TrEMBL record:
Sequence similarity: Belongs to the cytochrome P450 family.
Molecular function GO terms recorded: heme binding; iron ion binding; oxidoreductase activity, acting on paired donors, with incorporation or reduction of molecular oxygen, reduced flavin or flavoprotein as one donor, and incorporation of one atom of oxygen
Binding site for heme: 333
Documented EC number(s): 1.14.14.1
Gene that this sequence comes from: CYP2C92
Location in or out of the cell: Endoplasmic reticulum membrane; Microsome membrane
Protein name: unspecific monooxygenase
One Pfam match: p450
Keywords, in A-Z order: Endoplasmic reticulum, Heme, Iron, Membrane, Metal-binding, Microsome, Monooxygenase, Oxidoreductase
Gene Ontology CC, one term: endoplasmic reticulum membrane
Enzyme class: oxidoreductase
Gene3D superfamilies on file: Cytochrome P450
Amino acid sequence: MFLKWLSKGIISSNGKRWKEIRRFSLMTLRNFGMGKRSIEDRVQEEARCLVEELRKTNASPCDPTFILGCAPCNVICSIIFQNRFDYKDQNFLNIMKVFDENFKILSSPWMQICNAFPALLEYFPGSTDKLFKNVAYVRSYILEKVKEHQASLDINNPRDFIDCFLIKMEQEKQNQQSEFTFENLKITVSDLFGAGTETTSTTLRYGLLLLLKHPEVIAKVQEEIDRVIGRHRSPCMQDKSHMPYTDAVVHEIQRYIDLLPTNVPHAVTRDVKFRNYFIPKGTTILISLTSVLHDDREFPNPEVFDPGHFLDESGNFKKSDYFMAFSAGKRVCAGEGLARMELFLFLTTILQKFNLKSVVDPKDIDTTPVANGFASVPPSYQLYFIPV
């Protein structure tokens, strides 16, 4: 059953299917960004909800994992399902738990061994059984939502991504070769859901840990927020061009944590000669994003967290061709624009409304990932969110 899923959706499909589903997904996300309620509106709304949840911690020590996971997940939910969830909704809690479990399983040393020796799965299924059950749970939930959408669909007034896909299915129902099927809908939504939740939430969580380690960076970001935005207006994407230091901090967080060191598997589309190696067409390859994100010729002292890696001598933001946190080429992350928006707006909103305080001396904070397989997973920690 799981093998059947691997060739569908956006992440694991190839050829004509991948081109059509990706093109449709990007166009739909872009259209929602220009609609009555833009994607930026949705992210800003969620940022305000996030602030209210953080206020409920009453400036007491808390583990931010769950709250920081809810925010990006809810943005995806509003795009896919039309509505966001309350942070205490049981379905929402179940989905968040599943995503967190799967991210940890995929990043475990055992999973890296299984990637190298797949035959081991037959004899020691273990955590992979849990992974497949979790994936099936999410897709079953999505199927329920699809059926609800079918029953209330208005082709002249699409509410969300699922509606747009269902309308496309209806338009292509006479095409026997159409890629717009229930199975592709279910898996595409699952791809957007999973990839758009855990990656952004982990980046936010790791980012706050790095900021706790470097309080001088927090001070500079907050000074820029006070100067450009103030304390009362919600941050917006137009602010970013006037906030080079904050922009550099967001980029440096992504560069430093190297979230997906080898990205997802790729395959060569033709025979390739590369540095005296011959790679036959169809060969699966893994790309080392670490090799560019931590290249010491582009980023002096790459193992040091330093926003200056993305600033010129005048303090202006400096782009780098080596910044490949979202991969590169035709299969660059489809949600890159959304993720960039979320990271900037969520981080600036948090630092606009709160001072962050570590429960331990910043010198004693360890930022070494606890797992570094499929993803770099930060260690667990607690902090105080102290209202400004």
